[in-house]
């Protein structure tokens, strides 16, 4: 008897079905196959209903409808801003880009993801533009996250704690799965399973599944936050999931997966709520998906996408 797919696998399959069915390329046979897939088990049916509900949210927020109702602005009204934005965006991009060094054991380029097994059996997945180094000894398993985001699915080894050093922050665990994200703005520690201990300056914080801690430069302490770890770590399965996120935050996230900058000068437009699922296996299509679903105008220039 074939094994039952895990809930994560079913969620991914359901999202893939929705992506196909709404692509305009689904055949009658594929639509029939989807109906049959839903009937394979109650778990399949539940995953399908949840994916359909999430997809139905796309473009249906009040702010999205208001944006659609407004007349589209003509491109020439943005000409002066585009020239200035292009210069600032390119300069900003070049100044903050990370160049991997000889000490980096593993690194990924922009838009790339990489997965491998450490010598102890721990599975590590690197997100876009990430660099880290590994230093295992007989007493300790240590990783230095220099930039970006990594998901760690730990192999059990009670005698050797697993340590991730991210700047001033030290993350320690013995089992489970957690991610650490480090960029210029903040460091985020997110727990999917097991328990994690985070040390930041004088604070030690214990995190449980579906909890995260955010640390910003100069911040002495952080509080636990309840989150959906499955959604926030969907990137390692090739998906980005947003549920009523401000457009500005969505664009900041999408920017991690492509070269150049995404500029949004309109704060009101930036507050528009976005819900949906994006396919990281097609990073060049991320902005086009937003364009189609929300009626946005996007002007593409070398290394800059101007959203209005």
TrEMBL record:
GO terms for molecular function: sigma factor antagonist activity. Residues 104-197 form the FecR protein domain. Residues 12-54 form the FecR N-terminal domain. Coiled coil: none annotated. It holds the Pfam family FecR. PANTHER family: PERIPLASMIC SIGNAL SENSOR AND SIGMA FACTOR ACTIVATOR FECR-RELATED, PROTEIN FECR. This is FecR/PupR family sigma factor regulatory protein.
């Amino acid at each position: 008897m074939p094994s039952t797919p895990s809930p994560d696998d079913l969620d991914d399959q359901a999202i893939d079905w929705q992506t196909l069915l709404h692509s305009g390329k689904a055949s009658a046979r594929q639509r029939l196959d989807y109906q049959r897939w839903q009937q394979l088990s109650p778990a399949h049916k539940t995953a399908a209903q949840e994916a359909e509900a999430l997809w139905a949210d796309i473009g249906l927020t009040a702010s999205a409808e208001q944006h659609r109702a407004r007349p589209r602005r003509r491109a020439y009204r943005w000409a002066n801003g585009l020239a200035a934005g292009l210069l600032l965006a390119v300069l900003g991009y070049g100044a903050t880009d990370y160049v991997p060094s000889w000490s980096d054991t593993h690194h990924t380029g922009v838009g790339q993801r990489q997965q491998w097994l450490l010598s102890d059996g721990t599975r590590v997945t690197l997100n876009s533009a990430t660099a880290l180094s590994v230093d295992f000894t007989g007493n300790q398993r240590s990783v230095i996250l220099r930039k970006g985001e990594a998901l760690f699915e730990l192999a059990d080894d009670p005698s050797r704690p697993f340590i991730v050093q991210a700047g001033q922050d030290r993350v320690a665990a013995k089992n489970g799965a957690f991610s650490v994200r480090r960029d210029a703005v903040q460091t985020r520690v997110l727990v999917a399973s097991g328990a994690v201990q985070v040390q930041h300056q004088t604070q030690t914080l214990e995190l449980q599944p579906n909890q995260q801690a955010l640390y910003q430069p100069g911040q002495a302490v952080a509080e636990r936050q309840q989150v959906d770890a499955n959604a926030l770590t969907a990137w390692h399965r090739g998906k980005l999931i947003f549920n009523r996120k401000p457009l500005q935050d969505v664009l900041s996230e999408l920017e991690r997966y492509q070269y150049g900058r995404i500029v949004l000068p309109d704060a009101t437009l930036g507050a528009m709520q976005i819900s949906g699922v994006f396919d990281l296996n097609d990073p060049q299509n991320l902005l086009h998906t937003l364009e189609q679903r929300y009626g946005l105008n996007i002007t593409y220039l070398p290394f800059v996408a101007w959203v209005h």
